[in-house]
Amino acid sequence: MKMLLIFIGLFSTVWAAQCWVGPVGDEAVISAQDCAADDAVCSYPKFVYGGEGYGYKCGPCPADSKDRDCQECDINDATDAGPCNAITIELEHGFECYDYTLSKEGNWIQSKKAKLCSGDKDTDVTCNMPNSAADKTYKVPNMGCGPCEATTINDDEVYPCTSCKMERCNKSSASTLEFVLAPLLVIIFYAL
Question: Hey, which of 67, 75, 108, 172 has its CA 20 to 30 A from 114?
């Protein structure tokens, strides 16, 4: 009886549903891990303008990112190579864009450091930033990476953001002005 229980335990361990689990960018620490019994899918990043925020996991993608930054596969679709959420390292190039968050005062604040945007060889370098049509309900797509996404306000399709086609081109004019004025103020200070 004891041998039968050990055999059943080994058998269930070998055949437990697994997903690759770990962060993007450090594939050395990604490993196949057993998932909870109620996990029906594995999730993994979709490398089209972003994806780096969503690693390899058991369970579904966050609702606001499914099919945009994150994709899912049936947990039972494992192959000889491993779980279904294969580690897809197809990145030919990366580029940087700034992210934006809304302050308590209702102003859009640019991140101090640019975020790494991911893409395969066919991904265009594109950044986005909120514009004057962006209200407090607006969410910056892909942490500033990629093109703007249209939204509907009063039955009209509007773009509450602006896209540009160069790395770090979505730097706010306030930050650019600060970058230009800071050295100028130092020069004036020492000239007096």
Answer: 67
- HEC profile for the chain? CHHHHHHHHHHHHHCCCEEEEECCCCHHHCEEEECCCCCCEEEEECCECCCCCCCEEECCCCCCCECCCEEEEECCCCECCECCCCCCCCCCEEEEECCEEECCCCCEEECCCCEEEEECCCCCCCEEEECCCCCCCCCCHHHHECCCCCEEECCEEECCEEEECCCCCCCCHHHHHHHHHHHHHHHHHHHC
Q: Does residue 82 sit in the same domain as residue 97?
A: no
Q: Give per-residue pLDDT as tens, 97-153.
A: 999 999 999 999 999 998 878 776 677 889 999 998 888 888 888 889 888 877 755
pTM above 0.85, yes or no: no
The rounded distance, in Å, linking the Cα atoms of 39 and 53 is 21
Same domain, 75 and 100: no
**In whole angstroms, what is the distance from residue 145 CA to residue 147 CA?**
7
Cβ pair 47, 120 in contact under 8 A: yes
Domain span holding position 143? 93-170
41: its two tokens: 């899918």
CB contact burial 157-179 (16+ within 10 A = b; e otherwise): eeebbbbbeeeebbbbeeeeeee
